[in-house]
Specification:
Layout (H helix, E strand, L loop, with lengths): L15 E3 L1 H7 L2 E6 L9 H14 L8 E5 L3 H13 L2 E7 L4 H10 L2 E5 L10 H15 L4 E3 L6 H18 L6 E4 L5 H13 L4 E7 L4 H7 L30 E5 L1 H15 L5 H17 L4 E6 L13 H6 L15
Parallel strand pairs: 2-10, 3-4, 3-6, 4-5, 7-8, 7-10, 8-9
Antiparallel strand pairs: 1-2
């Protein structure tokens, strides 16, 4: 009889993709972890699975219970597909500025979607704080209880990357990985992979690629939580506070990446390597290029291809949107059906 795999078995063990152009450009071997191949389409499927399994193990999440989370979209998608598969309900609190494709996906999946206005993290109306408030209310009213997933500070987020993503990278590179770099949304991926790789080789270099307008570049470079100049159209990465997941993580390098640098990388990857990726992957690959320049030729560097570009068609691959934001516009063969 074949094994009875369920949705949870489809998460993880994603391929490591050789990124030819940037590797040839730098003289390093640069690879991307193809997290867009998870069933929910992003690296956040791992986060969702880790949070749910931990909540089940400690008795916090009961059958039929409700999972509430504040998210830029991908964690909400991961939590919702798993909630559907595992007998829970999901409530997703999301900034209304996020891509219409992610909003539509959550609607199709059946999440209870609560769209809120954009606010600074210091405001009680910030989507993360709103999710906590809603979860506290649902705990009192739901017959099977409710939890707040709190992905930014939940140790289960970091732990699942320490036990799955990091070891996978080590094995897929035959232990030759010299450096790992990625952007931070919640910090779970960067911190968890750093833990796993450093356990196996303390000399592996760890770096952050941070978009414009985020405070983490300055935190790791200058020890101050001050936003860097500019802004980014990328979603789900770059924050103005220090997530609990990375509060004790030390980094070897930090890079501030402009959209003007990341977007052409995405367009080139699509046209020349067939990879349709989201904005965070562009930031990550640009970070890997900077890391390769700093470390020098001959090194093996890994980053994360967080999600696919199809959920950002209305932004990343929409020439009108890019023109309005004074950003690089792709080749005329890309995004010609966007409006």
């Amino acid at each position: 009889m074949p094994e009875k795999h369920t949705m949870t078995h489809l998460i993880g063990n994603t391929p490591l993709v050789y990124l030819r152009q940037v590797s040839e450009q730098t003289g390093c071997s640069i690879y991307g972890k193809a997290e867009f191949m998870n069933p929910g389409g992003s690296v956040k499927d791992r986060t969702a699975l880790g949070i749910i399994q931990a909540a089940e193990a400690n008795g916090e999440l009961q059958p039929g219970g409700v999972i509430v989370e504040g998210t830029a979209g991908n964690t909400g998608i991961g939590l919702t597909i798993l909630a559907n598969a595992m007998g829970y309900q999901s409530v997703v609190v999301m900034p209304q500025s996020q891509s219409e494709e992610k909003i539509e996906r959550l609607d199709i999946l059946g999440a209870e979607l609560i769209l809120v206005a954009d606010h600074e993290y210091s405001s009680p109306n910030h989507y993360i704080h709103m999710a906590e408030q809603i979860a506290n209310g649902r705990k009192k009213s739901e017959p099977h209880g409710a939890i707040w997933a709190r992905q930014f500070d939940n140790p289960a987020n970091r732990a699942i990357h320490r036990t799955t993503t990091g070891p996978e990278i080590w094995e897929q590179t035959d232990g030759t990985v010299d450096g790992f770099v990625c952007a931070v949304g919640t910090g779970g991926t960067l911190a968890g992979v750093a833990d796993a790789l450093r356990e196996r080789n303390p000399d592996v270099k760890i770096a952050i690629a941070d978009p414009a307008g985020s405070a983490l570049y300055n935190y790791f470079k200058n020890n101050t939580l001050e936003k860097s100049p500019g802004r980014s159209i990328t979603e789900g990465i770059g924050v103005s506070f220090l997530p609990g997941n990375i509060h004790d993580t030390t980094l070897d390098m930090a890079y501030r990446i402009e959209d003007e640098v990341a977007l052409p990388i995405l367009f080139d990857l699509l046209l020349n390597e067939g990879l349709l990726l989201g904005g965070s992957a562009g930031i990550n690959i640009a970070g890997a290029v900077e890391m390769a320049k700093e470390m020098g030729p001959g090194h093996t560097i890994v980053t994360v291809l967080c999600d696919g570009g199809e959920r950002y068609k209305s932004k990343l691959f929409n020439p009108n949107f890019l023109y309005k934001n004074k950003l690089p516009v792709p080749d005329s063969t890309i995004g010609r059906l966007s409006s």
